[in-house]
Amino acid sequence: MIIKGTDDLIVPFAGGNVKLFEFSRSRGEILSTAETIDRFDSTTAVPPRQKS
């Protein structure tokens, strides 16, 4: 199960840099939610999801 919110200021839904505060340095880059699901699907026996 993957739970992510679109209003999360620390972990962006669309991926990108993770920052604790607007003025702080980047804590690294993360994948978008869709990319995370696709990567997870490619490493398991789960059939690919239908893209709309």
What is the first-to-last residue Cα distance?
Answer: 20 Å
H/E element sequence: EEH
Query: Radius of gyration in whole Å, from Cα?
Result: 13 Å
Number of domains: 1
Main sheet properties: 2 strands, antiparallel
**Beta-sheet strand percentage?**
5-15%
Question: What is the number of strand segments?
Answer: 2
Structure report:
This protein is α+β, with helices and mostly antiparallel strands and about 50 residues long. It has one domain (about 1-45). Helices cover about 20% and strands about 10% of the residues. It has one helix and two strands. It has a two-stranded antiparallel ribbon with strand order 1-2. The chain is elongated, with a radius of gyration of 13 Å. The protein starts with 15 loop residues before the first strand and ends in a 10-residue tail after the last helix.
